[in-house]
User: Which sequence fits this backbone?
């Protein structure tokens, strides 16, 4: 899916107060980024899409919070999966992995017992979840681009 002028890349960033400075200086090398300040003013003409990756306890949530504080939209994959497990995929997942539905939502512990260590089961689950996550992610990106162009 094309959304016009969007650059995708990776930026290694230190923790703490230097983070926002690095993001802004890195953005400058791409001809300006779409930033929304606390008052809703947008600047720049190029959107930078960053992916935060890392192991447990590496600061992804903290970094995402810093982006949110700066006014950047953030797609949180963990939150997205939790939302899916409380709604749209409950009956589908329970049909494939009977007994993982509890109180109208997916019991992640029960589901984990069924899929972790079982490559076929994990692939089946991912075939359900990943397209829905991709759709939500692309919707956020499309909305963000439309708002930046207004």
Assistant:
């Amino acid at each position: 899916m094309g959304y016009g002028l969007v650059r995708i890349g990776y930026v290694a960033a230190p923790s703490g107060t230097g983070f926002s400075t690095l993001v802004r200086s890195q953005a400058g090398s791409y001809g300006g980024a779409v930033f929304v300040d606390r008052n809703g003013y947008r600047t720049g003409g190029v959107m930078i899409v960053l992916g935060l990756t890392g192991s447990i306890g590496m600061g992804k949530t903290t970094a995402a919070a810093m982006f949110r504080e700066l006014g950047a939209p953030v797609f949180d994959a963990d939150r997205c999966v939790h939302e899916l497990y409380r709604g749209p995929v409950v009956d589908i997942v329970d049909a494939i992995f009977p007994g993982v539905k509890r109180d109208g939502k997916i019991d992640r512990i029960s589901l984990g017992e069924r899929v972790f260590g079982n490559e076929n089961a994990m692939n089946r689950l991912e075939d359900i979840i990943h397209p829905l996550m991709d759709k939500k992610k692309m919707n956020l990106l499309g909305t963000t681009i439309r708002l930046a162009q207004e």
About this structure: The domain at 75-150 is CATH 3.40.50.300 (Rossmann fold). The CA atoms of residues 23 and 29 lie 10 Å apart.
